């Protein structure tokens, strides 16, 4: 049956389901795994999973009436394959899991232990939203006290940790998130995808802030050079998604206008920068990127924004059904959608070749939570390098000029509301990490010199005023509950860093409790 299906001409859901059942032999060997996996992944585009489960139950019951034991066992093999290939669907859909349990109970009641044993719904694991962080080696950590300073990080180390953060966020995205985005055209009621997009945008903005935080052109040029080499290492890791974010930050109008800064960047770095930018340019429908991605072997992290655009384009160009009664699904469209989604799904099955330092992950997570508008970034750029009086006249407005036609805008997304537990967890880990890595003599205190070094990781720390040793510290901090509740995760980190010289390790748990209370 599977061999007789012509998807390009369209078929009914029932015909495709029967084709998938017949793709198995009685021993469970699947003759057409591509067809089976495609249908099981893509069926929610056409019918709810609960309806598919009901159809499977109906097929089994009919085959029992027809005394077709072969069809019965093949149906059970398909259910087993479904559970094995897409366990998260059963863990996150209680109604679906209950239907499969009812099928298994029916088989048990009939005494059909052989068929029942094929359906192991009880062993479906709980979906793990967070990957385990590689444990630190205490000896190695002792030798690398400065590893928490972004300015001192080796480009590969920073690239590896950015890869880990984005990969961990990417692994939470499921089929239903893509389906929702494509059908709605936005991230409405899609917090997982929205969070990933927000992280992407945060990386791009963080690159800009790290550059603009430096007061002199040579210092800014050094930061640009550093991030160009980070982008180079991201390419070596075949992480095109974060590469796009970093290059996007470097190519932003707030950075591209800094002519004095660029004059201090070496020709070799400029050439490398241009090559990396050309790789992810939108020219030719991202042709350079697509060719490079197709040649990759092993772990690779595609640019999600590009493939989401492909999904949306297909959704708009081709109908789901080929007839007005919505009975014959568009098999050609299904195959094209599946090809894109399968490429994205494969990413989660390949672990990135990186190891993560938990301390650095916490600090990096906090540092990336710095949200500024386009106007604010451009204002800061103008403060660093004001418009030249000799240059052609321009409007007095600080509205940034159009971006260079290199990168298309990534999907916009609102800043997700932070979870209180997440705030407390990362701040406590960050403070503990700072003490563990910078309290050299182990006396439970951070010196002023060490404080000035570590604060460099937060370009907007000065938003609360420069630390004045002769002035009471409370004068620098928000003074009302309303202000405290509006502070972002980065803001809480700033407060933590500001009071670090006055803290010792014994105060960390109680300080986190204070933060938790303020956020209630």
Automatic annotation (TrEMBL):
Gene3D superfamilies: EF-hand (1.10.238.10), Ras guanine-nucleotide exchange factors catalytic domain (1.10.840.10), Son of sevenless (SoS) protein Chain: S domain 1 (1.20.870.10)
GO molecular function list: calcium ion binding; guanyl-nucleotide exchange factor activity; zinc ion binding
Keyword Ion transport: no
Main localization of the protein described in the UniProt heading: membrane
Domain EF-hand: 426-461
Residue ranges annotated for the N-terminal Ras-GEF domain, each copy included: 4-126
Region described as Disordered: spans on this chain: 383-405
Biological process per Gene Ontology, one example term: Ras protein signal transduction
GO cellular component assignments: cytosol; neuron projection; plasma membrane; synapse
Compartments (UniProt record): Cell membrane; Cytoplasm, Cytosol; Synapse, Synaptosome
Family: Belongs to the RASGRP family.
Protein's UniProt name: RAS guanyl-releasing protein 2 isoform X4
Organism for this UniProt entry: Neophocaena asiaeorientalis asiaeorientalis
């Amino acid at each position: 049956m599977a061999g007789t299906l012509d998807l390009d001409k369209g078929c009914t859901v029932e015909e495709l389901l029967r084709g998938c059942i017949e793709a198995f032999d009685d021993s469970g060997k699947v003759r057409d795994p591509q067809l089976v996996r495609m249908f099981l992944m893509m069926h929610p585009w056409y019918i709810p999973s609960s309806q598919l489960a009901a159809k499977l139950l109906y097929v089994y019951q009919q085959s029992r009436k027809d005394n077709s034991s072969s069809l019965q066992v093949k149906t059970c093999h398909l259910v087993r394959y479904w559970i094995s290939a897409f366990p998260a669907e059963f863990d996150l859909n209680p109604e679906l899991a209950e239907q499969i349990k009812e099928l298994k109970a029916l088989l048990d009641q009939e005494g059909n232990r052989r068929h029942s044993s094929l359906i192991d719904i009880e062993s479906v694991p709980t979906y793990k939203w967070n990957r385990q962080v590689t444990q630190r080696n205490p000896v190695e950590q002792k030798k690398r006290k400065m590893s928490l300073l972004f300015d001192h990080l080796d480009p590969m180390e920073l690239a590896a940790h950015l890869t880990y953060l984005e990969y961990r966020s990417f692994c939470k995205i499921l089929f239903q998130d893509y389906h929702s985005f494509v059908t709605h055209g936005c991230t409405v009621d899609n917090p997982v995808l929205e969070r990933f997009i927000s992280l992407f945008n945060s990386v791009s903005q963080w690159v800009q802030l790290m550059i603009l935080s430096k007061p002199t052109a040579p210092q800014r040029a050094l930061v640009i050079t550093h991030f160009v080499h980070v982008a180079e290492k991201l390419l070596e890791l075949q992480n095109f998604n974060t590469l796009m974010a970093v290059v996007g930050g470097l190519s932003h109008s707030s950075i591209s206008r800094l002519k004095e800064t660029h004059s201090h960047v070496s020709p070799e770095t400029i050439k490398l920068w241009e090559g990396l930018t050309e790789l992810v340019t939108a020219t030719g429908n991202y042709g350079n990127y697509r060719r490079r991605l197709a040649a990759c072997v092993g772990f690779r992290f595609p640019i999600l924004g590009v493939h989401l655009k492909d999904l949306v384009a297909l959704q708009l160009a081709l109908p789901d059904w080929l007839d007005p009664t919505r009975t014959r699904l568009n098999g050609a469209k299904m195959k094209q959608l599946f090809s894109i989604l399968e490429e994205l799904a494969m990413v989660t099955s390949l672990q990135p070749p990186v190891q993560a330092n938990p301390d650095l992950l916490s600090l990096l997570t906090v540092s990336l939570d710095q949200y500024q508008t386009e106007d604010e970034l451009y204002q800061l750029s103008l403060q660093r390098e004001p418009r030249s009086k000799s240059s052609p006249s321009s409007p007095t407005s600080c509205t940034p000029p159009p971006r260079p036609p290199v990168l298309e805008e990534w999907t916009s997304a609102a800043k997700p509301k932070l979870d209180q537990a997440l705030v407390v967890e990362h701040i406590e880990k960050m403070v503990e990490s700072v003490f563990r890595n910078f309290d050299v003599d182990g006396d439970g205190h951070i010196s002023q010199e060490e404080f000035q070094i570590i604060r460099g990781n937060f370009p907007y720390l000065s938003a609360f005023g420069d630390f004045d040793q002769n002035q009471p510290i409370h004068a620098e901090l928000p003074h009302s509950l309303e202000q405290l509740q509006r502070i972002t995760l980065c803001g809480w980190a700033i407060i933590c860093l500001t009071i670090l010289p006055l803290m010792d390790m014994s105060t960390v748990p109680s300080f986190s409790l204070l933060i938790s209370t303020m956020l209630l």
